[in-house]
Amino acid sequence: MRRVVRQSKFRHVFGQAVKNDQCYDDIRVSRVTWDSSFCAVNPRFVAIIVDASGGGAFLVLPLHKTGRIDKSYPTVCGHTGPVLDIDWCPHNDQVIASGSEDCTVMVWQIPENGLTLSLTEPVVVLEGHSKRVGIVSWHPTARNVLLSAGCDNAIIIWNVGTGEALINLDDMHVDMIFNVSWNRNGSLICTASKDKKVRVIDPRKQEIVAEKEKTHEGARPMRAIFLADGNIFTTGFSRMSERQLALWNPKNMEEPIALHEMDTSNGVLLPFYDPDTNIIYLCGKGDSSIRYFEITDESPYVHYLNTFSSKEPQRGMGFMPKRGLDVNKCEIARFFKLHERKCEPIIMTVPRKSDLFQDDLYPDTAGPEAALEAEEWFEGKNADPLLISLKHGYIPGKNRDLKVVKKNILDNKPAANKKSDLINAPKKAADASNSVSKIHKLLGNSGLRCGYQGAAASEIVITTLKHL
């Protein structure tokens, strides 16, 4: 019988690297031996972990800031040890979390137009791990809920709005955690660990819902991620060190739905998943290619689509959320590939002749609005992501500043200080003088430009404060 070719609108997806002048050049990408992606992207900024002497740092560049990046370009550099992982908040494009070898997690607020000075003061420092923190991941639907996992084999879930650790899962893993993934509505997490187990955990009940031993029999690192339908996709190694990918149903983890062997390369396969198109992109660390597969309900369930190949191996990879793509060019994914000294965007496109909006390629996608507040989620509520249409392109709205109630640390922009904030601020003399000196520092230059100097400029600031 003649074999009929499977129908799929994604069969002809092709990747293309952008021209040299649209790359980010002269970046000293981190050389830390850690299997994270070293890069995080959103519709405003690209963040890249870089080499830094005496501590850890990462660059945050506005997307349009392409070309050569000056060595003196400001960084986010508050950690005292190398940064291992970074993750943008899905509900605020100016908030990013970082985990480091210094055992802390820090949450940062980036100014609207990017950094003009190096950022050393985080909005909040989350301390609770006893060893280095290699994984940070924001909750997909609840505001200000952040997960971190460290080499102390503990997973902590934080309420960033109060700076508190509300859930501590420190007795579920006996070995190093390779990665953690939230499901679509953030009610469950799945983890891959060095003991070759994949666990599905209900974090609020603090119990293991399902687990599979020897998911992949090889000793090298695995990855496990949740798909939109609740199944789990894993990558790992066979006993013969061949790279494998597998699909599992968490309700029955005895046998995989599908298991494929790929090649004998030794780089860890980082999976990037697009829930709207059900495509998984596999980027091997040290590989020079991106393979992509479509997940469907029909056998063999994981369908190979194509491979994007280039000459240079990748040190890390960033994956743009759907709302940051150009829908007019039928772009269905954009990667930010890290080389040794540069970051190169790669655009995945579905070839279409029409210039009209292709609604079959762009179903409604997760928007930037949180479906739940942190307190609601910790009390047991669940909610799916709030969806938006991309028909007329995504226009970023105004992000509200991240406020931490416990420590009363706000973003230091003077514009963000509302009248009520200043009235409600503690009336202690020390705090008042701190506010004056901060505002003096921020407004001093403009005071000098207007011809006021020294004491006269501070007098203006103090008078302004009194009026407020």
Automatic annotation (TrEMBL):
InterPro entries: Coronin, DUF1899, WD40/YVTN_repeat-like_dom_sf, WD40_repeat_CS, WD40_repeat_dom_sf, WD40_rpt
Biological process according to GO: actin filament organization; neural crest cell migration
Protein name, entry field: Coronin
Protein family membership: Belongs to the WD repeat coronin family.
Residue ranges of every copy of the DUF1899 domain listed in the record: 3-67
Any Pfam family hit: WD40_4
Signal peptide: none
Alphabetical list of PANTHER family matching this protein: CORONIN (PTHR10856), CORONIN-1C (PTHR10856:SF10)
Keywords: Coiled coil, Repeat, WD repeat
GO molecular function, one term: actin filament binding
WD repeats: 76-118, 126-168, 170-211
